[in-house]
Amino acid sequence: MTNLASTKLPQVLQAREADILDRWLQEQLAATSLRSDLMNAAQLREQSREFLGLFGQAVGQGADTNIHSPQWRAAREMLAGVSQARGTLGFSPSETAMFVFSLKQPLFRALAEAYAGDAAGLSDAFWGATLVIDGLGLHTTEVYQKSRESVISRQQEEMLELSTPVVKLWDGILALPMIGTLDSARTQVVMESLLQRIVETGAEVAIIDITGVPTVDTLVAQHLLKTITAARLMGADCIISGIRPQIAATIVHLGVDLSAVITKATLADAFALALQRTGMYVARRPTTATGPSSAPARG
Amino acid sequence: MPVLKSESLPIRTQNDIVAVRQATRTWAVQAGFSIVDQTKMVTAASELARNTLQYGRGGEVLMELLEEAGRRGLRLTFEDQGPGIPSLEMALTDGYTTGSGMGLGLSGSRRLVNEFHIESVVGSGTRVVIARWR
Amino acid sequence: MERIPILKMGAFLLVSIQVDMHDRLALTLQDDLTERITQTGAHGVLIDISSLEIVDSFIGRMLANIAAMARILDAHTVLVGMQPAVAITLVELGLSLPGVRTALNVEKGMRLLQQSLRRPGEAAAADADDVAGAAGAESPDARPEV
Question: Which end of chain C is more exposed for a tag (fewer CB within 10 A), N or C?
Answer without folding.
Answer: N
